[in-house]
User: Fold this.
Amino acid sequence: MKGRLTRISLLDSGARRQKEFSTAVSLHSHTRHSKEGLGFVPQYAPRIPVVSFFYKREEERYSRIKGKALDFQRGYWTPPVTGKRVFESETNSIECQLGLQPLVSLTDHDNISTAKLLHTYNPSHDIPISMEWTVPNGGGIFHLGVHNMPSRSSAHIVKELALYTVQPSDTRFVELLTWLNNYPEILVVLNHPLSHSNSLGLERLKALVTGFLDRYGKSIHALEINGYRSWSENRATVSLAEQVGLPLVSGGDRHGCAPNAVLNLTNAATFSEFVSEIRSHKVSEVILMPEYSEQLLVRKMESVGDFLRYYPEYPHGQRQWTDRVFFQSEGGVVRPLSYYWHHTIPMWVKSFTLLVRMLGSTYLHQVLRKAFVNKEKVSL
Assistant:
């Protein structure tokens, strides 16, 4: 995009812009160490045919026995992919599709276990220690990608950021942002800034995000173009970035087996050099992979299918999808659903998983891609 801080191109546009660069950067991937909330279940389950009948019946049964509704806020799920698998698939995708050197930053929610392990045991690959930080602020919840923390300081940084998440304070937030900015190699990105418009309303959300950036924008280095958000939403993020004078970077936001559909192109040889391009020069080259142009609903269904799949190669206790959904009891004990459902699974859950598994088959993926043509064309 001429004259802007960020240039965005399509891989299948014929420009072949990747030939001008030596490296592709994959940002924002999740592994099995990310805890994803289940608060969406009561919002969507009643809308799904067949599933809604069994869900409502089970909900009434639970309320009758327990005297209250099931609190899905006490539950979470984890992606089905290991850090090693994510890193290898991102690396292979960049090398095979673009022919470039890969730089991969994994960002689990408020957790650096995977990133630090890969960083420690793969020193030749320049794997940054990164995470997605949950930030309650001003009545909203924001997500900041904190990339490339120094290895020696990373544990302490994560501890302090986690304390803020539990006990937010505006003064402390300013201190933490200043602290992060004092590390020249750290990149701070506001991830999917407009992703909560369904719950808040677009205008209210824009006002909330604009206020957030007015207060803290000088300490945030870029906004994110997200691989699992619609082009209309990403286009609104482009406008927002122009309004506040920040560059844009890519963020695949994968939670399944498919590689990220949005990447950055650069001639930086290291991740720290890439950070310097964004922070100091405010220059960013984003490329949309062909997958991004596919129907978003189909891509999201594929991710759900990845989650529900059985993985026989995984250790015992990680193979079934019920091993990857967790609930905290009223006593504070966290256990997987497989602990509670070791004898039988509720009918509404069986109906839903069967439906998604059918839709997740390779044959039906091809049918769905043809049936659900992406009407929202990506125009740059």
Summary: The mean pLDDT is 88. The radius of gyration is 21 Å.
